[in-house]
Amino acid sequence: MTGNELKELLEASPGECHRQLMKEYGRYVYAIVFNKLRSCGTREDIEECFCDVFTDIFLRFEYDEKYVSDIRGYIGTLAKRKAIDRFRTLSAADLHNAHADEEEMAELVSDISVDELVDGSELRRILLQKIKELGEPDSTILMQKFYYERSSAEIAKTVSMTASSVRSRITRAMGKLRIKLAEAGITR
Amino acid sequence: MKNTDLFDIFENAEDELMEDLTEMSPEISDERLEELLAVSERNYKMKKKEYERTRKDKNKEYDGAVSGVERVKRPVWLAPLVMAASLVLIAGVVLGSTALLRRHGKSGGVTPDLTAVTTTADKNGEITTTKSGSTVTVTTTKAGSTTAVSGTNTAAAAASGQTDSTTSAASAAVAETTAAAAANETASGEQELERYAFDLYKRSEIVNDKINGIGVSGYGEGFLKVSVDPGLGYRSYDYEHNNSQWVDNVKFYLPAADENFTTADELRSYVRSAFTQNSFVYRWLEDNLITAPDDFENGGYLDSGYLGHFLIYRGKLYMTAPGGGKGSLEPEYSEAYPVIITNKTDTSFTAYVAEWYGGSEPYYDLNEATCAEVKYVLDPEFNDWRINDIVTRPPGVYKELYDSRNN
């Protein structure tokens, strides 16, 4: 829906407009918030920040006409700012919740070091490209497992597989990724 | 080494990677979405109340408090002109009163006519003075030194008294007439001000729309394409191909060719025709009226410091055009509920405008009305009223004012 259509919906039914906003931009906001808070926040922190972002979006969408024309850009900026604010208030201590099967997978990535690579931006681009080259659903499974820190059981639900199938795909996909990264000069 | 080292590098990723990270992010289930929505809605309602309350408090504070110094410049010829106008007014009142008094005197017939006085003296030394019309007869007898004053003399005295009372009545009539005229003038002045305030408010709505690209009468030929930082998340209608598509990380501007403005100066003047220089609209305009660097070429990159709603490029004014149209919901007004003016001083006043968005005629339910609180100030640059601020007030604010005015 365009900003104008959402604005019209807001006049007719604010509740429905808010639902549409969250449906349309929920994953985008989540990805941004998660990206900023991954290292310092729990999943609850992230969801709390996610709700804060949408609270602000609802308010500003109602009172600030000028954002209607570029709603995605506006939401992205708002989410980023909010997440950075939250990052500052959260403890920098590692509060990650380790999933039971996270430990099992530790060795899969432990032999890949990026310490000596200084250009993080370039590395991110290469890594993302290599992950995407694995194809679906492996790329999504790997990202959800190691970046979004979802358990194999949770991933299994979203990709319609059993948890054990997800685990075996992760093992194979990481093997392929290791080779691809080595070819690109990224190894221990 | 931590087992998440490799994927940790995605943290604080550039915005351009966010699309990929979004695509690979976990789906939010409908159930979870509803839960998160419920939390956001609850927070939103609380914040909205807080927001409205803060605004109310702020308004109350402004109503009662005076801070700072407002410098008002008036033209030098204004003072003598006002003095001359006052003198003319006073002279008019005096002359008018005199004329009314005179007219009353003639038509009342109370003042005795001046008539011939006849005095005769006979041999007995009796002197008789006769004043015809006034029936005053004075008889003086020299011998007995007796002075007799006939009763009609009393009537003359009474007539004199009557003249006094007539003078008082005339004065009262003049005063009454003057007061009624002044009241009429005031009422007429108030109505005129209400109409003026209403027209200016409607004009300000059009001005506000136009500078936001709503209802612009046209754009000039050609476009200006600007590449922008992907981190800003810009999305723009593709005026280059005009194929109903939107493109990312690009901002298009079209030459301003509205009937009211084609240059930056005309744009400023247009906004100033309704708003003060301190108004949020004018300040927004100045923030968004940006001159492109001389070495910029069409299609080139501009950083965020140059990205406003308007762009002046090589002396020409360009503006952001809402691709696909940007609709505006026009409010409706009711003749039965005119503008209400409060806090009127020589240099400012506040007007409350009842407006209805949506619904069908007739617009009579004030509980459904939205109330615009519009602050006007006398703009020294034009010696005329301009809008300084517009605040949307909750439904019912107008109703309260309307009821208190009519009761």
Describe this structure in words.
The complex is a heterodimer of chains A (188) and B (407). Chain A is mostly helical and 188 residues long. Chain A has helices spanning 3-12, 14-37, 43-63, 71-89, 106-110, 120-133, 138-147, 152-158, 163-183. Mean pLDDT of chain A is 77; it is low at 92-103. Chain B has 407 residues and is α+β, with helices and mostly antiparallel strands. Chain B has helices at residues 5-8, 18-23, 30-64, 78-108, 151-211, 264-272, 280-288, 397-406; strands at 117-121, 127-131, 136-141, 146-149, 224-227, 235-237, 246-248, 250-255, 289-291, 310-313, 316-320, 340-342, 348-355, 370-379, 384-393. Chain B has eight helices and 15 strands. Chains A and B meet through helix 1, helix 2, helix 3, helix 4 and helix 5 of A and helix 1, helix 2 and helix 3 of B.
Topology:
The complex is a heterodimer of chains A (188) and B (407).
Chain A: H1 3-12, H2 14-37, H3 43-63, H4 71-89, H5 106-110, H6 120-133, H7 138-147, H8 152-158, H9 163-183
Chain B: H1 5-8, H2 18-23, H3 30-64, H4 78-108, E1 117-121, E2 127-131, E3 136-141, E4 146-149, H5 151-211, E5 224-227, E6 235-237, E7 246-248, E8 250-255, H6 264-272, H7 280-288, E9 289-291, E10 310-313, E11 316-320, E12 340-342, E13 348-355, E14 370-379, E15 384-393, H8 397-406
Parallel strand pairs in B: 9-10
Antiparallel strand pairs in B: 1-2, 2-3, 3-4, 5-8, 6-7, 8-11, 10-11, 12-13, 13-14, 14-15
